[in-house]
């Protein structure tokens, strides 16, 4: 069946019969609560790795309340004991399906630092207690659900599943793993913000369809035995197609130079729909990637074949190529189905969901929420809740496309904004419901603070665009950059009775902000409490280009504007910049230049970030393949230096904290080896001081030897991947940092 290009209104589905039970005070977590509601069973049970907080910033609450609004009885099993399936039976057998999510954070990132050390706390657990969820929670929970009730469908969702929808590089095991859908033995995976897909899946199951019959919904991933008949397959499984176009043309019977109109292929006369038998079985038409642009293809019945799991597992260059193709097929208005073979099975990735219109997203956030943790937690402190309990999410999505970030891969590049009325209603809800509310709103933002209502000027242009970012290498001329709606929202919010202060804590795209001085003045005058955190991420152009971030000239322009409006408002306020160390393509010399910039500008950063290879991001593909997928990838593509060993990464982090005496011995040796001994001393232009007693070790500090430094800079050393290593498996356990 072709993939639909449109979507029904999110709230237009007929309500399930159980709507007569109405809205629950809390989604039940026990049989006792179910009995109090008069339920004999749940229609849908959500299993989550987070504590249940009935708040629109927690995924399980949004999904649970949305399904409830569709008439379903929804229960929640939060942070179950995964050692056996018994705890997954606490609410009984669901009538329709289990919904499984790892929680608001990826379970591996939640537990391990970028240096692969185990974290001491879990912000999404009562009293921050660690160890309340398993590694790779989605896989473990799904398998336990199947053990509990083998005949109940399991639907995967949330960010952990979303970013593992195809074969993906796994930083923690240092290998490419299969799609999580296969490892979890689940039935279907929903990626991105999943309300649309979930509404369709629940509706079809409620009408009696089997989960195996559901395979054409946008925003879903399923397993098929083969590409369906009648489809056209664009073969992008290799990068070494012969240069001789004529030989390809002859082999596939196609002419890349044929003049064809850019229209949908006629279903009766097009070559993709020729009958292959008495029963109108249509063959799968295969076109090699170099020839597809000049062929009349119906995007609704065209798929792109990615290199198979077996190939990307063994070949990092093919992995980078697959990552590039995936990201180019991310616009829901022109994306095609992706197919990736896993053994004898075909992983079938349907195009992204159609973004929610403003009335639809208003409807989701306007559902009933208690805005508090479930009463069963008593007075326990849940840090993530404390951080967001007075925050408001005003939009979804991000068109920044930063290569190291996975927000775009999850939520998409098209901004979905709430109306002013919806946001104001939530602020009033906070004022009435949050215990001890003092009148302070901790954030009015989202993935990015100032992309609210910023979209393409032309729907047709947006529908055909395949750019990975609307703001890199420069701001697209078709992008709306007026922040008028955001500025008006700030003013309306501040005028609400009982609201004393509104902070803007979400990340700010200062390259967009400088396009609208009125917005910057509004922000600086009313919504900055002395410090504003922004993220230049680096200072060097080569690294910034790989990050897909603007140059420092934009930072300087924003800083000038920020200081001007702060002075005009009579306030002393400061910018706090964030930077990333050890990003793929970042040389040690780049980090040295960054540290010199920090010293020149009198910054001594305490909280620093080392690049974390999260699943599916383009920078993770750079890290694994040491190639740049922002450009066409080939085996002859330039090799990208990537800090991979733990000591390489720690050295770059040390440059960010040049002022920390613990790093001085390491940095001294590094500077000498880089022939930059001129930066060692007490002068204003120098980075770090000389030893107190030259030639001796300072108390409590180990002076790094030349040999140690060579190891850190990529010599023959098997900690993770050395710079000279040829095989991803050449590492020693001692380098794992656990």
Explain what the structure shows.
The chain is an alpha/beta fold and 738 residues long. Among the domains are: 17-224, Response regulator (Rossmann fold, 3-Layer(aba) Sandwich); 645-738, no CATH class. It is 30% helix and 12% strand. The protein contains 25 helices and 24 strands. The protein has an eleven-stranded mixed sheet, sandwiched between helices. The protein has a three-stranded parallel sheet with strand order 22-23-24. Strands 2-15 form a two-stranded antiparallel sheet. Helix 10 (316-328) packs antiparallel against helix 22. Residues 254-279 and 695-738 have low confidence and may be disordered.
What average pLDDT do the residues reach? 88
How far is it from the N-terminal to the C-terminal residue, by CA? 48 Å
Low-confidence stretches: 254-279, 695-738
Helicity level, as a percent range?
25-40%
Strand order of the largest sheet: 3-1-4-5-8-9-14-13-12-10-11
Total helical segments: 25
3D shape: globular
Descriptive keywords:
738 residues, alpha/beta, eleven-stranded mixed β-sheet, three-stranded parallel β-sheet, 30% helix
Quick description:
The chain has 738 residues and is α/β, with parallel strands linked by helices. The chain has 25 helices and 24 strands. Helices cover 30% and strands 12% of the residues.
């Amino acid at each position: 069946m072709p993939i639909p290009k449109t979507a029904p209104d999110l709230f237009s589905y007929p309500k399930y019969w159980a709507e007569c039970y109405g809205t629950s005070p809390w989604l039940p977590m026990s049989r006792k609560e179910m009995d109090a509601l008069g339920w004999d069973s749940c229609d849908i049970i959500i299993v989550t790795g987070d504590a249940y907080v009935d708040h629109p910033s927690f995924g399980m609450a949004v999904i649970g309340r949305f399904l409830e609004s569709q008439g379903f009885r929804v229960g929640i099993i939060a942070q179950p004991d995964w050692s056996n399936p018994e705890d997954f039976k606490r609410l009984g057998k669901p009538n329709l399906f289990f919904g499984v999510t790892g929680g608001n954070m990826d379970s591996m990132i939640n537990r391990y630092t970028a240096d692969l050390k185990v974290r001491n706390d879990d912000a999404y657990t009562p009293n921050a207690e660690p160890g309340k969820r398993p590694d790779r929670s989605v896989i473990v929970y799904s398998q336990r659900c199947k053990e509990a009730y083998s005949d109940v469908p399991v639907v995967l969702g949330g960010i952990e599943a979303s970013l593992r929808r195809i074969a993906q590089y796994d930083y923690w095991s240092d290998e490419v793993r299969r799609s999580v859908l296969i490892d979890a033995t689940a039935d279907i995976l929903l990626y991105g913000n999943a309300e649309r897909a979930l509404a369709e899946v629940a509706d079809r199951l409620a009408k009696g369809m089997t989960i195996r019959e559901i395979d054409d919904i946008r925003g879903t991933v399923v397993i098929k035995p083969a590409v369906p008949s009648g489809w056209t397959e664009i073969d992008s499984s290799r990068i070494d197609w012969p240069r001789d176009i004529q030989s390809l043309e002859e082999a596939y019977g196609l002419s890349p130079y044929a003049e064809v109109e850019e229209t949908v292929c006629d279903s009766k006369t097009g070559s993709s729909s020729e009958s292959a038998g008495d029963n109108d079985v249509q063959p799968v038409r295969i076109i090699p990637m170099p020839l597809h642009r000049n062929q009349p293809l119906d995007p609704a019945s065209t798929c792109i074949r990615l290199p198979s799991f077996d190939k990307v597992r063994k070949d990092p260059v093919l992995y980078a190529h697959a990552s590039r193709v995936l990201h180019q097929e991310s616009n829901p208005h022109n994306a095609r189905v992706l197919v990736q073979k896993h053994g004898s099975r075909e992983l079938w990735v349907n195009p992204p969901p159609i973004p929610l219109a403003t009335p639809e997203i208003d409807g989701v956030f306007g559902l009933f929420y208690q805005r508090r943790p479930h009463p069963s937690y008593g007075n326990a402190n849940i840090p993530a809740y404390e951080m967001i309990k007075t925050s408001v999410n005003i939009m979804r999505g991000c068109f920044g496309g930063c290569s190291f970030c996975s927000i775009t891969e999850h939520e998409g590049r098209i901004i979905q904004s709430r109306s002013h009325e919806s946001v104001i209603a939530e602020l009033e809800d906070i004022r009435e419901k949050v215990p001890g509310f003092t009148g302070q709103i901790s954030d009015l933002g989202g993935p990015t603070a100032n992309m609210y209502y910023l979209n393409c000027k032309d729907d047709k242009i947006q529908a055909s665009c395949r750019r990975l970012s609307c703001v890199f290498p420069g701001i697209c001329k078709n992008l709306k950059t007026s922040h008028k709606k955001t500025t008006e929202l700030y003013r309306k919010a501040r005028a609400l009775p009982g609201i004393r202060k509104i902070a803007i804590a979400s990340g700010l795209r200062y390259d967009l902000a400088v396009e609208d001085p009125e917005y910057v003045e509004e922000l600086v005058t009313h919504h900055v409490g002395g410090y504003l955190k922004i993220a230049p991420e680096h200072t060097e152009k080569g690294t910034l280009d790989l990050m897909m971030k603007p140059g420092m000239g934009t930072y300087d322009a924003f800083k000038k504007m920020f200081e001007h409006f702060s002075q005009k408002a009579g306030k002393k306020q400061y910018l706090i910049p964030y930077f990333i160390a050890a990003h793929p393509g970042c040389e040690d010399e780049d980090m040295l230049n960054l540290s010199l910039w920090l010293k020149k500008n009198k910054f001594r950063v305490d909280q620093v970030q080392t690049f974390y290879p999260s699943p599916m991001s383009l920078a993770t593909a750079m890290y694994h393949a040491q190639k740049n997928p922002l450009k066409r990838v080939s085996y002859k593509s330039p090799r990208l230096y990537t800090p991979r060993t733990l000591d390489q990464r720690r050295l770059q982090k040390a440059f960010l904290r040049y002022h920390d005496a613990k790093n001085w011995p390491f940095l001294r040796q590094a500077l000498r080896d880089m022939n930059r001994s001129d930066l060692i001393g007490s002068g204003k232009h120098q980075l770090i001081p000389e030893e107190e007693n030259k030639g001796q070790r300072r108390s409590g500090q180990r002076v790094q030897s030349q040999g140690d430094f060579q190891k850190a800079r990529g010599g023959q050393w098997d900690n993770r991947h050395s710079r000279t290593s040829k095989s991803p498996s050449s590492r020693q356990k001692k380098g794992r940092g656990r």
